[in-house]
């Protein structure tokens, strides 16, 4: 059954958490050009339209090439703050109550931007959003898997002063960028060190890569959530394990369609994963590049798949349960969702 306008409105108004968004992927073309001008960075695109026209991706790598080019305009603390502020204003419109944000320090340190500039700029906007929009947040540092483990280890060392330190929201690490040919086991030692430091652990796995990469993320990196993970559908034993161990999948429907993981939204396996009892969540990944923020991901999914309002509440509940906030904060958000549901019961 297609969603009624009333149901679509309820899904949009529902309190929810976002657990898979790359802050560099929230950089809209207009802001890319504004920052390029401010910083005197020359872009290989004539204007906003020409850049947007280049967003015709064929796979993950074709997207990453443009995503890294877009991030080249970020130089100062203000740039990182402006980018993060714009995302949080948009998140507030989608009734996101809590967000866990990825950032890619190596993309910036390779250009001579210090990790301090990156983290301080992002943190400034996160603190501001807490008072301005009532949105809480955490930060997750992602290692780029196309680079070496040695590079990841060095990056970790430079970030150590910021982890779990007073006033900072940096709580964990993840693994992103080109998946094929860069299995999780390439990063065994750096994740071992992260676990010893007590950091929260996630990794992208099973987006383009095979189910074997999801097993490696679970067994070797010991992730607490799997980012994407949609290719788990190919392995019955893996599905059973993910459901049994309550390992959340941070699924990104518009991203999967734009990067041709699925031919169209009607082919997406999100509903099947949910019916198999997996802790599925919906997320936007790189909303400026994939045609929609969180609510647009919810609506596109619900319009294409035969899902109910019960499913929408389950997805929102999963997003709070799978978050890395302390139990009391988690319970407060879950109560808020329950109150919303009671007030909107038909
Ligand atoms: N996959 C891998 N790396 C990424 C992605 C993604 O979807 N978005 C930004 N970096
Ligand atoms: Zn991602």
From TrEMBL:
Residue ranges annotated for the Adenosine deaminase domain, each copy included: 15-339
Catalytic activity: adenine + H2O + H(+) = hypoxanthine + NH4(+)
Residues reported to bind substrate: 286
Cofactor comment: Binds 1 zinc ion per subunit.
Top enzyme class: hydrolase
Gene Ontology cellular component annotations, sorted alphabetically: cytosol
GO molecular-function term, one example from the UniProt record: zinc ion binding
Record keywords: Hydrolase, Metal-binding, Nucleotide metabolism, Zinc
Pfam family, one: A_deaminase
EC number(s) from the headed UniProt entry: 3.5.4.2
Residues that, per the record, bind Zn(2+): 20, 22, 204, 285
InterPro entries per UniProt: A_deaminase_dom, ADE, Ado/ade_deaminase, Metal_Hydrolase
Database matches in NCBIfam families: aden_deam, PRK09358.1-6
Family stated for the protein in its record: Belongs to the metallo-dependent hydrolases superfamily. Adenosine and AMP deaminases family. Adenine deaminase type 2 subfamily.
Protein name: Adenine deaminase
Organism: Pandoraea iniqua
């Amino acid at each position: 059954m297609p969603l009624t306008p009333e149901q679509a409105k309820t899904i949009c108004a529902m309190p929810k958490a976002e657990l898979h968004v790359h802050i560099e992927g929230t950089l809209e073309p207009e802001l890319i050009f504004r920052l390029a001008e401010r910083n005197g960075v020359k872009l290989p695109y004539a204007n906003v339209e020409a850049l947007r026209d280049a967003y015709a991706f064929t796979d993950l790598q074709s997207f990453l090439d443009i995503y890294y080019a877009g991030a080249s305009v970020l130089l100062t603390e203000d740039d990182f703050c402006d980018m993060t502020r714009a995302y949080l204003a948009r998140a507030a419109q989608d009734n996101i109550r809590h967000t866990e944000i990825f950032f890619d320090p190596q993309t910036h340190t390779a250009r001579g931007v210090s990790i301090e500039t990156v983290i301080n700029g992002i943190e400034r906007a996160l603190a501001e959003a807490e008072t301005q929009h009532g949105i809480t947040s955490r930060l997750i540092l992602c290692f780029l898997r196309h680079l070496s483990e040695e590079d990841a280890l060095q990056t970790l060392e430079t970030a150590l002063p910021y982890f779990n330190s007073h006033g900072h929201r940096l709580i964990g690490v993840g693994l992103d960028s080109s998946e094929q040919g860069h299995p999780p086991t390439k990063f065994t030692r750096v994740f071992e060190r992260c676990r010893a430091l007590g950091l929260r652990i996630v990794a992208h796995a099973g987006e383009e890569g095979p189910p074997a990469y999801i097993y490696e993320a679970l067994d070797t990196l010991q992730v607490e959530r799997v980012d994407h993970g949609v290719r788990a559908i190919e392995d019955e034993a893996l599905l059973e394990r993910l459901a049994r161990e309550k390992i959340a999948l941070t699924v990104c429907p518009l991203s999967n369609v734009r990067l041709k993981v699925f031919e169209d939204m009607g082919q997406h396996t999100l509903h099947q994963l949910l019916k198999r009892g997996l802790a599925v969540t919906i997320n936007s990944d790189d909303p400026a590049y994939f045609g929609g923020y969180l609510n647009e991901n919810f609506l596109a999914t619900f319009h294409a798949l035969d899902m109910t309002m019960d499913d929408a509440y389950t997805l929102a509940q999963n997003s709070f349960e799978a978050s890395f906030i302390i139990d009391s904060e988690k319970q407060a958000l879950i109560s808020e969702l329950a109150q919303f549901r009671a007030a909107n019961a038909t």
